[in-house]
Amino acid sequence: xRKLLIVALAIVAMSCTKKQEVTPxxxxxxxxxxxxxxxxxxxFNFEVRVDNGKVQLTVRNADELIDINEVERIGDSLIARxxxxxSELVMAVNDSLSGYYYPKGLKDSRRYRFYAIKGETDRFPxxxxxxxxxxxxxxxxxxxxxxxDSTIMIAELRQDGSRVTGTLLSTTGDYRYLEGKVAGNMxxxxxxxxxxxxxxxxxxxxxxxxTNGTIxxxxxxxxxxxxxxxxxxxxxxxxxxVWVRKGYSTFEFAGIDLNGNRVTSADERFRGKVLAVLAGxxxxxxxxxEGRFYxxxxxxxxxxxxxxxxxxxxxxxxxxAQPKMKRFAQSIGADYTYLxxxxxxxxxxxxxxxxxxxxxxxxxxxxxxxxxxxxxxxTGFSGPGTGEHYQKFARETEELIVKLINEK
Length: 408
Description:
Blueprint: H1 2-14, E1 25-32, E2 41-51, E3 54-61, E4 64-68, E5 70-74, E6 77-81, E7 88-93, E8 97-102, E9 112-118, E10 137-143, E11 151-160, E12 163-170, E13 173-174, E14 178-183, E15 186-192, E16 197-206, E17 209-218, E18 221-229, E19 242-244, E20 254-257, E21 262-264, E22 274-280, H2 285-301, E23 306-314, H3 318-332, E24 337-343, H4 346-352, E25 356-358, E26 364-368, E27 374-379, H5 388-406
Parallel strand pairs: 22-23, 23-24
Antiparallel strand pairs: 1-2, 1-9, 2-3, 3-4, 5-6, 6-7, 7-8, 8-9, 10-11, 10-18, 11-12, 12-13, 12-14, 14-15, 15-16, 16-17, 17-18, 19-25, 20-21, 20-24, 22-26, 26-27
């Protein structure tokens, strides 16, 4: 697929008499997930830099900046590959940028139309009304209310003027960095981080209620939602979601590392160490945040007897999964152990994580002491986009690691 595309772009390039140059500076990108313009459009901000003819992009979602350094120029077109994940943008360069967004990369046939407007810094410039409400605070966010598929989450929102940043927290992890605005009595929120494209819209009924909302991450995922302000909104504690199965206290694992070697929990590198076991995958955005946190812990405490192993649930074969796992590890910059353990799926996950039960999600983690006993279990991950929630997790986790390291 990629070779055919490159050939096609090269043919187009040969027919051009003058090479178009992409304009440096701010741009507003729009991914159209539906054939009807405006129905499921996902806007996101990015910056273009050109250094000695090399084009680089930086995508912004609230406080998150994603540098896209893999940008290939073919004639008057650009192919930009997001870091960590497999999504790619294919863009023709003229006064604007236009083309397609491939959420699973060029090897996958699924694609959405894409265009970008140069010089635009507002994320939702079409909506200009002054905000009638300030929605800063915590809200119960109910997706698919009143149905068997109902999901209760928490929206953590911060408003400055018309601009809003924040995230959605759920028992399976947070939605990472979202950004949008309030215009009149309407609320708009979006993100594109290379793993997910999400658009959220809703009506602010009054200072304590939002109604008539929709949240979408694909043409097949379009759900209604409503929200109720509650400063005391709190998700269930981790121990009520997943726990150690009766009759088990330790955990053993085996898998194939990035170099194709078989590795087990009995290997010397893990013996007598405090061990964090992370179950996730290279496709999982919350796993990225989790991996970055544990990289920091690993760099800080590995010399004191702390190890980390990432159990990766990926494609059906190691050969297909290996390049994705390597890319994921490189983007985190971690040199702890990554193991291919099974294809992605609930049955495979439950089989590998045999010592646990409950409502497991990706990621799920365990911390084992020096004797191999499971001392803590977590499912889901609330990353740095959740502010104080992440800070509390980071503080408590580091305290536990230090405590276990010092145990004799």
